[in-house]
């Protein structure tokens, strides 16, 4: 029989507090000295489970979270059941979750429905025990009820949410009731950016901008159709926003699904003012940079490293230097590194040493119950290498398109592995040695899946 979760961390902290109380209240110089114990090296690992809505793997039935201390997370004899015993996160569909760097706080903005756009945060207490901190705040009036948001890496102080709205500009050329001679001009792209004080649950700033491409590209029907994953540069004076470039047929204004890709684009704003938008372009990558559900760009060693998707040459990790321009001398192509075709980065996360874990699919991925099969790789930003992690078992139904996050503890990275509707495990990757170990068992339910660790 599997062991069930026991909150050993709470017991340890209570005992430590008792010992410290005894040592502090004694005034007898002959009484034994009780040395202060070292701080517990454990941290909370929070697992998120996405329940099925109407179809296996859609995650539209809501999100549940469950926390376990890192020692127990590494123990394969321990079993947890987030779907049966987890805390239900407020969200109509799959919640968009973030965590503090120490794992002690979970941040959430509800996605869609009546509560869409509501921000809340919780203390992590172990198991299904999450205590809301203070009152929430709604950002729906700024970025809608289904916001795309992220926690900036500024010491857990700020979140940023974004949206883009599009409208075709048409010149009617003096249209009469009898003659229609409309001419497509361009597709307008208005972006909105709001920053949120995570500590005090307050709106910090909001700005809107019209983002243009060159007149030549816009006449061909190109426009920015989706944005996401804002990221601070190392100096914390610029905000980078990933972008997806789309295209319409100028003759019909119908959206084209197949078109010649432009160089990967990023919108750059002054920070914290959110003013002076510019667009920078890569000559290495030719895919989108907005990502999907997970953080798509990270600051490391003075630069920002950014994944792209839908690149005709396979996904790349791109580099934006301290000068706030793409560094095209840095070439990290996943097709070449992994020896596959059409690599697509689903999510990724580096540790402080520049080594990390990356989820991907490729042209050889099996088609599972919810979509293409996913895999994990160990990557090195400095060496520009990627190696599939063979210690993790794979299944055609191992679906990672909605994967959101990895828990980073020093150079260890925690991830969840479980095919749709099947049990799996937490795995712990030591990025220094490359060794991957199986941890606690994850009990699944029909049609559902796990979307990450925080």
From TrEMBL:
Protein name: DUF4374 domain-containing protein
Keyword Signal in annotation: yes
Organism: Pseudotamlana haliotis
Residues of the signal peptide: 1-26
Keywords assigned: Signal
């Amino acid at each position: 029989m599997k062991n069930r979760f026991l909150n050993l961390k709470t017991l340890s902290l209570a005992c430590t507090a008792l010992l410290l109380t005894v040592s502090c209240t004694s005034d007898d110089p002959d009484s034994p000295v009780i040395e202060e114990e070292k701080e517990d090296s454990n941290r909370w690992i929070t697992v998120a489970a996405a329940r099925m809505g109407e179809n296996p793997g859609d995650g539209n039935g809501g999100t549940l979270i469950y926390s376990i201390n890192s020692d127990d997370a590494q123990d394969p004899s321990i079993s947890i059941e987030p779907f049966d015993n987890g805390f239900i996160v407020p969200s109509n569909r799959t919640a968009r979750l973030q965590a503090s760097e120490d794992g002690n706080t979970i941040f959430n903005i509800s996605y869609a429905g009546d509560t869409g756009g509501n921000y809340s945060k919780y203390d992590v207490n172990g198991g299904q025990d999450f205590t809301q901190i203070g009152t929430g705040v709604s950002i729906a009036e700024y970025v809608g009820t289904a916001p795309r948001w992220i926690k900036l890496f500024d010491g857990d102080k700020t979140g940023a949410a974004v949206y883009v709205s599009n409208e075709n500009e048409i010149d009617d050329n003096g249209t009469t009731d009898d003659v229609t001679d409309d001419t497509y001009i361009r597709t307008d792209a208005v972006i909105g950016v709001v920053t949120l004080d995570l500590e005090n649950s307050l709106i910090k700033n909001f700005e809107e901008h019209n983002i243009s491409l060159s007149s030549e590209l816009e006449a061909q029907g190109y426009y920015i159709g989706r944005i996401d994953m804002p990221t601070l540069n190392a100096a914390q004076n610029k905000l980078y926003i990933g972008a997806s470039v789309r295209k319409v047929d100028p003759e019909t204004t119908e959206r084209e699904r197949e078109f010649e890709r432009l160089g990967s684009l990023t919108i750059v704003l002054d920070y914290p003012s959110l003013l002076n938008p510019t667009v920078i372009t890569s000559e290495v990558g030719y895919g989108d940079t907005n990502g999907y559900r997970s953080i798509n760009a990270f600051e490391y060693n003075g630069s920002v490293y950014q994944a792209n998707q839908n690149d005709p040459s396979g996904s790349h990790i791109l580099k934006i230097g301290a000068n706030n321009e793409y560094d095209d001398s840095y070439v990290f192509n996943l097709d070449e590194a992994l020896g596959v075709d059409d690599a697509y980065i689903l999510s990724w996360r580096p540790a402080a040493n520049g080594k990390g874990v990356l989820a991907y699919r490729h042209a050889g991925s099996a088609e599972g119950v919810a979509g293409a099969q996913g895999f994990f790789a160990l990557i090195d930003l400095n060496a520009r290498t990627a190696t599939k992690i063979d210690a993790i078992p794979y299944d055609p139904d191992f679906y990672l398109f909605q994967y959101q996050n990895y828990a980073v503890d020093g150079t260890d990275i925690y991830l969840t592995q479980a095919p749709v509707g099947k049990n799996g495990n937490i795995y712990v990757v030591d990025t220094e040695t490359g060794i991957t170990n199986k941890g606690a068992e994850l009990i699944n339910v029909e049609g559902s899946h796990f979307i990450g660790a925080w």
